[in-house]
Task: inverse folding
C-alpha cells in the first residue's frame, strides 16, 4: 500500500479487520450467515464485546447508545436481535447482562447494575 500499511488477500468465507490500534487482525474464517443476517432483518452476535454490539446496533437506529464503564463495554454478549425492534434489543441486553437501561429521546444509556 502507498501508506506502508499491511495488505491481505481474502478468499470466500474469510474476513479480517483492524484492531483499536489500527493494526490488521489476522485473517480468519467468518460465519457468512451471521455476517449477512442484516439482509434478513437480524443481527447475530456470538460472544462479541458489548461496545462492538452497540456500535453495530447504532448503525440501524436513530439516536445514540452510551455504554458506561470499561468493564461493561468489554463484557461478551451473544444473541439474535431483530433490527425493527430497538426496545426488544435493549430488553435482551438487560436480561443477558448486569445492566440498567435508561431510555431517553435519541439516547439510550447502558450502565452497570449493582450486581457488576
Result:
Amino acid at each position: 500500500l502507498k501508506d506502508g500499511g499491511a495488505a491481505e488477500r481474502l478468499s470466500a468465507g474469510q474476513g479480517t479487520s483492524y484492531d483499536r490500534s489500527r493494526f490488521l487482525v489476522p485473517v480468519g474464517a467468518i460465519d457468512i450467515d451471521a455476517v449477512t443476517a442484516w439482509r434478513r432483518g437480524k443481527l447475530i452476535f456470538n460472544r462479541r464485546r458489548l461496545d462492538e454490539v452497540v456500535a453495530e446496533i447504532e448503525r440501524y437506529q436513530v439516536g445514540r447508545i452510551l455504554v458506561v464503564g470499561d468493564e461493561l463495554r468489554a463484557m461478551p454478549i451473544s444473541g439474535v436481535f431483530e433490527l425493527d425492534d430497538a426496545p426488544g434489543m435493549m430488553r435482551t441486553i438487560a436480561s443477558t447482562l448486569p445492566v440498567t437501561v435508561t431510555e431517553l429521546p435519541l439516547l439510550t444509556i447502558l450502565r452497570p447494575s449493582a450486581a457488576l
Helices lie at 32-35, 50-58, 70-74, 86-96.
